[in-house]
Amino acid sequence: MSKKYLAILTILIAIILDQVIKIYIKTHFELGESVVVFDWFRIHFVENNGMAMGFEFGGTLGKLFLTFFRLLAVPVMIYWLYQNIKKKMHSGVIIAIALIIAGAIGNIIDSVFYGVIFDHSNHKVATLFSDKPYGEIFQGKVVDMFYFPFIEDAVLPDWIPFIGGEMFTFFQYIFNPADAFISIGVALLFIFSKYAFPKEEKIVKE
């Protein structure tokens, strides 16, 4: 398979998988509903205003800034991907950039469109293409669902300064497939960094 089609296929599969899972969760779970798959893995439906792992970013204006930043960043990433394809870069680098692009697009779709195609999930399951959507365009909330509390409600040792004796959970962040694709893409860039960021050979003058 050519690197061009590898990139396109990776992006399409990742975006479709991301949206299928999010739409399923949105149309089958109430907000806050949780299903235990294993003790260390749960499907837990939450929503956030657009940052990865459920972080917030400055309310409505912050959300708009983040969405438009992604809209500007995606074309830059696509251009970088195009350049790497032209250079016949290592497939690991191509897949990495494609996953980051797909993850960004996945969360952009939520932020831009979900507010006008879904109604609220509060105390009920949301309806797709509802007559009474919960928001406006660019005001959609990102759907998160993957929760891996490997260590839950543990007590930190007393000798740890400032936070000793307090309860903590590891890993406490809830994320979605798009976040996972971005994280995997970044990890792959580190793994294949010698290909992704090649050092220019020094010209030795005699």
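Next protein, fold it too.
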Amino acid sequence: MLPLWFVENSNADEFWTEERCYITELMNTPASPETSLAIARVEAGVTTQLHHLDGICERYVIRKGSGIIEIDGERQTMQAGDQAIIQPGAAQRITNTGPGELEFYCLCTPRFRPETYVNLEE
């Protein structure tokens, strides 16, 4: 029997989202409702969907590439190593302004759940 604290590797595949980016969920389980961790990948020239998350604080840590993040109408250039803290309910999107892919970690507290995602473009 496995210990309660152990979460087996789910071998999560990258998937396309309506947000106009690819997501790989590294950690998102009811066993750890406090947090989730994913990698987002945005292709060159793409801007993600304007949205907000209900009740979830999201943090981006840029791994690769560069872009412009917009949070509640305020824009900031970002590059590898930069971080953004996005408060619950804040309108957000990011644009890949570089020649290659933009990749970043998405750390959510509490963990991301699809029903918390609100599309602000509709």
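About the second fold: The chain has a mean pLDDT of 96.
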